Amino acid sequence: MNRPELIQRWIRDWQQGRLSRRELLRRVTLLGMSSFALANLTTACTRSQPTPTPASTEASPRVGAAIPDYVDRSKLDRELNFYNWSEYIDPDILTEFQETYGVKVTMDTYASNEDLLAKLQGGATGYDVIVPSDYMVSIMINLGLLEPLDYSVIKTIANIDPENLKPYYDPDNTYSVPYMWGTSGYSYDTSVLGQDLASWKEVFEPRPEVRGKVVMLDDQREVIGAALMYLGYEINETSDDALAKAKQLLLTQKPYVLAYSSQNNDDLLVAGEALIAHIWTGDALMSEQEKPTLRYVIPTEGCTVWQDNLCVPKTAPHKYTAMVFIDFLNRPDIAGRNANYIMYGSPNKAAREQGYIDQEVLNNPGVYPPPEVWKRLQWIKDVGEEGALKLDRLWTEIKTG
Amino acid sequence: MSSLATARPATTMRSKRRFSFGWAVLNLNVLLTFIFLYAPIIVMSIFSFNASRQMQVWMGFTLDWYARMIADERVRVAAQNSLVIALVSTIVSTVIGTLTALALERTRFRVKRMYEAAMYLPIIVPEIVMAIALLVFFNLAFTWLDQFFGLKLNFGLGTITIAHIAFSFPFVAVVVRARLADFDRTLEQAAQDLGANEWQTFRHITLPLLMPGIIAGALLAFTLSIDDFVITFFTAGVGSTTLPLEIYGRVRRGITPDVNALSTVMLLASIVLVLGSLLFQRRRSF
Amino acid sequence: MSAIDRVRVQERSLGWHERASERIRQSERVRALFLAGPGGLWLLLFFLLPTAIVFAYSFARRGPYGAVAWAFTLENYARLFDWLYIRVFLMSVWLALLTTVICLVIGYPFAFVIARSPRRWRNALLVLVLIPFWTNFLVRTYAIMLLLRADGLINNALQWLGLIDRPLSLLFTPFAVVLGLVYGYLPFMILPIYASIEKFDFTLVEAAQDLGANAWHVFWRVLLPLTLPGVLAGSILVFIPSVGAFVTPDLLGGGKVVMIANLINQQFLTVRHWPFGSAISFVLMAIVLAATMLYFRIGETRRI
Description:
- The structure holds three protein chains of three kinds.
- Chain A has 18 helices and ten strands.
- Chain A is α/β, with parallel strands linked by helices.
- In chain A, strands 4, 5, 6, 7, 8, 9 and 10 form a seven-stranded mixed beta sheet that branches.
- In chain A, helix 1 (3-15) runs antiparallel to helix 2 (21-31) and helix 11 (265-271) packs parallel to helix 12 (281-290).
- The termini of chain A are far apart.
- Residues 32-38 and 41-64 of chain A have low confidence and may be disordered.
- Helix content of chain B is 80%, strand content 0%.
- Chain B has helices at 2-18, 20-47, 64-71, 73-106, 112-124, 127-149, 157-181, 185-193, 198-227, 230-235, 243-251, 257-284.
- The two termini of chain B are 19 Å apart.
- By secondary structure, chain C is an all-alpha fold.
- Helices cover 77% and strands 1% of the residues of chain C.
- In chain C, strands 1-2 form a two-stranded antiparallel ribbon.
- In chain C, a hairpin with a 5-residue loop joins strand 1 and strand 2.
- The chains are: A alpha/beta, B mainly alpha, C mainly alpha.
- Chains in contact: A-B, A-C, B-C.
């Protein structure tokens, strides 16, 4: 059997799910073909034969993965260190970057913004690309930890939705490119509580049957912020008056609360041990997949919006390659596949318009809310030292109360 | 010697008659404790075969998670790193810990009380404090070494191992010391009377008698190292991930059964090792 | 020999004694250095020095964006004189004490049985105790959560047996936290006690029985006092980490059981007020040091 025939057989195996994409690419590379040629062959195959669709992430048609001309190949390093949240990128994308650009990507993970900051402040070097959330970007800018981005290389920023650009924390996107975004509303079980819950009231002044079945996020700013919004204040309010009212509300809510947990809320919802949970978009989607009677709500009083961003630390050893990587991640097809894999909202307009994102996710108003809902969303911002101390004290009082 | 040999069976028989109810209760305690210790493990293993991603409902038997885990390169690298670090840390901690225990029990020197108190500090200090202290320290040290010696060091497996040894060896010392405390010194004195020097006495009398305590300490050190999260997180560098770090990072998105699969495999491997050593011991005994 | 000669002989032998004791003292010093050196050095460099830095932090101010701004102030310690924080300290000590006592009650008999088993089995049994801990701590904790849930195995079993009507709320309570802590630190109690019992001379038991002692007397008057070092070691190894635990109360307590380490974590990570976090850590360490010294005091008086 000659080479093309062999490859065609492999491609058919892959389409039918008998071969993983990684294995396919490995075999082809061993055969000595370039990915570019393979891509052409692959698209030719997919177009010519009606085949059963393989796993969801592979459904999107592939664009030829070539290095764009504005990238200077001679400046590329052989490796890149990506410091990211766990399970926050489709691993196939990293492999594809490696095979296209010839750069090996090592990924390390962290579990919170504060861990990331503590590491960087403590002096850990060696990370090329990091993914801080909104407020963390502003803190890092103020601490001088970030490198200005080179937009002659990151041309794909044009694909990003203007709504997600020029955020308050980085008005000119000098240091950050939006990666994923989401909201923090709540999910509840429609089969028990009915179809039309819409207010924070259900969470903070719940019905009696919900007693001991409410889960809140384990996050100072999120929980106190939600309480403030329900009471009609701004999420970043720190006046003594407002905080006293919030404290009162949260303490009367406490007997209804099963747990304060940012990790287990989806688990508890699916198990039915919690009927309402304060939750992030991605977790909400995942739990809806396991239990379709769940529904995610952006409350009428408003809720937080947050955005994770790609940044390059000042101490990055491979700055140019880092920027190229960011450019790569924002290609419509790549961004789309990524969003489908990790189930958060993608700020990549091109990906949405060119059909790379799952229809089902696109139609979920919890993930891609209509413009009028956008007005109800508020960003968590840094409140200065005094405010931070007040909030911290309040949080301690609530948790130990 | 012979009187001791006959004394032992007599004690056991008599104690069996007298304390048979007591022995039943004791053995029941052991059984219940083993059930208590293994119940969560068994639950976890069962769910590693569950066809559902969530750990609530049983949805059918599958080996998919195991396949996923084996194919997962990150997990492989993390497991490897964890094992290497744990082995090195255990060996060094056990040696240093034993030496320290000997120092505390067998020698006198002026600052001994302070030394003793200092020895307990790594056990007392909260992990997060030690973690951040080490992070800052290493950073300062690396900068200083670079400035004065041009030595460019960085965070990595080395810094993790050093940190692990720092918090493990006091545990070993405490365990070995408990064993040393009422040690029967007449045996050692007898050996010395017979002409053995200090090193020989140590090697042939003290050390073998101390061995159960040392082994207990080593097991403790290994356990501490292989499961540590906080300190490891702050002293790790690029690409040096360990199992706890990897798993903790994923927990944010919910524990998936492939993590359970990994733990089950580790469990089975340990059990196989124990059975193996038991068989090996049987072969060697007379 | 004349009196003067006798005195001269005495002087010479005194000199010889002095030189000998000087040599013994020197070799003692060398031995002490060799034995205590490695541990001491490691401790100094990788522990005491870093800790001193953090101690210095506790007197500093919070920087504008967190971390540390160098200054000298006692405000961090002053903040702690507040019922809000004192309550957390008390709760932590209480839970840690409970954990220690439970571990002792379960662990001592357990260690006893292992130490009395046939020699071949002992090491294997010890390792069997430790094997659950070679799996990952988080995975184990999640498994415990699974068991304790409202529709978890335990509640289901109790309901099936007809012992309860509605599920007990076991999870996200202090009960769950203590359970988790006991689960996590039981081997730390078992191992030292085992080491102590294992070298206990059981002929003493026979002697006591000959003298008319019953089982209780044998235990309380003979076995326990002589295995006290192991008990003390085990108690310290359980109490201290329990008092400073944070993942267990966080997960099993559902964020509702706040222990000192959770507070410290909050300071270092969320609020990024490193000086305050350092101050809390040092007060914790002071409390624990006091407890440790108390243990030593008990150990010394009992030793006779």
